[in-house]
Each structure stands twice: as C-alpha cells, then as structure tokens.
Amino acid sequence: MSKHFFGDTTALLGRSLRHITRSADTIITTTIMPIAMMLMFVYVFGGAIKTEADSYVNYLLPGILLITVASGISYTAFRLFLDMKSGIFERLQSMPIARSSVLWAHVLTSLVANLISLVVVVLVALLMGFRSGAGVPAWLAVAGVLILFTLALTWLAVIPGLSATSVEGASAFSYPLIFLPFLSSAFVPTATMPGPVRFFAEHQPVTSIVNALRDLFTQQPVDTDLWTALAWCVGILIVTYIFAMATYRRRIA
User: Fold this and answer.
1) Which regions span the lipid bilayer (predicted)?
2) Sign of the CA dihedral 135, 140, 145, 147?
C-alpha cells in the first residue's frame, strides 16, 4: 500500500510541478508583495523604528518570510478549487490510485513553490544588507521551522480549496494570515504596543515563530521560543490535516 501511495503521489506531483513551471508568474507574484513590503519598511519606515538589531532588515526578515508563505499558499487553494470544478478529481478517483495522493501532490507542490519563493526573498534581503553569522545547523533549523510552517498553512489552504464556492472564496482566507504578522513582533518589539494588543501579540503563534527564527539568525541560545514555535507548527499541522482529510472525504463520497 505504501509503495502504491508513494508512486501515485510522485506521479501526481510531477503533473502539478509541470503546471508550476508553465506558470512561473505565480511564484513571481508570490514574491513581489513580500519583497515590496521589505523594501518599504527598510527604506521608508526603518529609520524611525527602534529595535535591538544593528540593521532593521536583520530584524524584519523573519516576519517577511512568514508573509511570503502566507501569500504563497493562496495559490494552493486556488489550484485545488480549479481541479475540483474542472472534474479532474472525479477522473482521478475513477482510477486505481491512492485517494490521499491527490491532496499530497498539491501539498508537496505548494512546499516546493514556497521554498523557491523563500530563497528568492532571502537573496533580495542579502542584497539589501541582511547578514547572519549563523552556521549550517542554525540554517537547517530555520529551514525546518519554515517547512513545518509551510506544511501547516498549506493543509489549512486545502480546506477552503475543497469547500469554497468561488475562486475569490478559495483564496481570500489567506488575507488574515498575511495580516497576522503585523500584530506580532515581526515589525516592531511587542513592548512598544498598548496593553491588549501586546497581550495578543505575545500569545499568538507568529511571534514565537518570528522570535525563534530571529534567534537562530543571530546565533542566540535556543530558548522556549523555538520549542513554542515548533509546538504551534506541529499542532496547527495536525489539526488542519485532520480537518482537510475530513473535508476531502465528504467531497468525494
């Protein structure tokens, strides 16, 4: 059964990746907004924002990376919605393939596309002056956190992709996710925020993830932020996977 699943997923993943290569503009579109946001905050607002970092782009980058992922997953929901409406799912289900491989192919395609976008954003940040003394283990830890975060949000994107009734509804869910880093430590220290906003910012997942990435980039000792970030990512991943699979079973029943 496992060989059947992995073989089916690999074949369907190849199909999805070919669609990505034919429409590279989706990756370009995904990276434009985070890069524009990074340019604006560094060169327009950066001089007025006080942080403990020696360079504002160093402080800002972790939050921009999360916004990049939140922007990219909207295309996963969009592609799923189109496949559902075009009848491709029904045709695939009539074939002797593992049912869950259809979803996993979309999820892994999202992971690949988002990783490419993240690399592009990091390269632009390097041109803007981002510097990190982090070694290979720290960079691998950063990659691990971002992969977990991407998988968690991608499985969340699967739910509206399967259940939405319009293209707009399939992708609109990502807007609150893009906005969430603004209510975190991504752009300014939470200590500068008023009481209720500060409480929310300090207890939502983005702040822990941003702080963990920032500590890894700056070679700070691993503290509770990293473990809290991992707990948030794994918890969201498990919950969204369960709901996504339940939604999928209802749609193909």
Assistant:
1) 27-49, 61-82, 103-130, 136-158, 170-188, 226-248
2) positive
Question: What confidence tier does 7 reach under pLDDT thresholds 50, 70, 90?
Answer: low
Q: Whose CA is closest to 71, among 37, 105, 122, 23? A: 37
Local structure of residue 43 (DSSP, 8 states): I
Distance between CA 44 and CA 190 in Å, rounded? 21
How buried is 51 (Cβ within 10 angstroms: 0-12 exposed, 13-18 middle, 19+ buried)? middle
Here the tokens at position 156 are: 């969340």
Helices (H), the chain: 2-22, 25-40, 56-86, 88-93, 100-127, 136-163, 167-172, 174-179, 195-202, 205-217, 224-252
* Spans of all domains in the chain: 2-252
User: In Å, what is the CA distance from 74 to each residue of 64, 127, 159, 166?
Assistant: 16, 27, 11, 13
Residue 89 banded pLDDT, cuts 50, 70, 90: low
Provide the 3-class DSSP secondary structure of residue 52. coil
Give the number of other CB atoms < 10 A from CB of residue 41.
Answer: 20
CA dihedral of 127, 132, 136, 139, whole degrees rounded to 10: -80
Mean of per-residue pLDDT scores for the chain: 84
Phi, then psi, of 221 in degrees rounded to 5: -60, 145
CA neighbor of 58 nearest in space, from 132, 124, 121, 118: 132
- With contact defined as beta carbons under 8 Å apart, do 198 and 185 qualify? no
Other CB atoms within 10 Å distance of the CB of residue 5: 15
Residue type for position 251: R
Token match 């999360």: residue?
A: 66
Residue of 12, 149, 8 lying closest to 79 (CA atoms): 12
